[in-house]
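Ticket opened by: R.M.
Priority: normal
Category: complex prediction / small molecule

The reporter submitted a protein together with fe (ii) ion and asked that the result be attached to this ticket for the collaborator who will pick it up next week. Submitted input follows.
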Amino acid sequence: MGHPLEALTAILRLAYSGELAAALAYRGHWKSVSDPDDRARIHRIEDEEWHHRELVGGMLARIGRSPSPARERRAWVMGRTLGLLCHVAGWLAPMYGAGKLERRNIKEYETAARLAARAGHPEFVECLLTMAEVEWDHEAYFRSRVLSHRLGRRLPLWPAPPPKSEIRTSFERETQPRAAA
Ligand SMILES: [Fe+2]
Ligand SMILES: [Fe+2]
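Result attached by the on-call engineer:
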């Protein structure tokens, strides 16, 4: 995987632009649903993705790296497109797509936390693990919404993440094997 700092930079750039795509897509998503609880929850998720983007941007700045302009452009187009599609895609497809994406985001921040520790930036770990936990909550919400749907219950779902507590226990197990034993 090369130098840990390079790997950390790559994953932070990916996450930074990923949050832009996600936030724009959720903006379209919450505006496309009519249930007030769904609207409020997805709106809050949008805000959380903007907050993540700010935090990840801060980390990139602290290691003296900038976001990838090409990735930023792609993320903007992707986010706007998905946001618009939510208005024509019906109720279930955006919920399903979001849940699947959030499952990946959990893993992405867990990996970033491990890379930060290896790259000599332990000060990022707490924040990255907390973001993984917030993505866990997002995944759980979208999963529950898909499962509330008659057709959604019959669809094969993406693999469920381990329990939320595993985000921290697995990190400790892998980075301080002796302390966890
Ligand atoms: Fe996020
Ligand atoms: Fe998320």
